[in-house]
Amino acid sequence: MTDPQEDATQIIEIRDDIRSECEKHGPVKKVLVFDRHPDGVVSIKFGTHEAADEAVTKFNGRFFGGQKLEAFIWDGTTDYAIEETAKEREQRLASWHKFIGDDDDRQNSATVANPPSNGINGANNGTN
Length: 128
Hints:
Elements: H1 4-22, E1 28-34, E2 41-46, H2 49-59, E3 63-64, E4 67-68, H3 86-99
């Protein structure tokens, strides 16, 4: 398994590199890396339509990090997010616990599902 912090660092570096390149074409509002997508999808939201169009023209067919890019305007419906399976989630959590040095020492932790309201009811707190 890979180091969770190293994976996160790589994703942040990719996001920042892409943002830096895209800002040459106009204001960038958001860069979203779909790190689970097998095609390496990144979505960039620009501040203007003109900046988005310019970036598509500039990046389509260009090589970035050794990969040939395909750049296009999002169709508004395609969902590029890929959910992890239960097995992948279990492996990720096990790797994380190993990374933080908490392999099987979870007996000393506590979870509060519904914190107490200290006797105050939002609808009637006894002051009426």
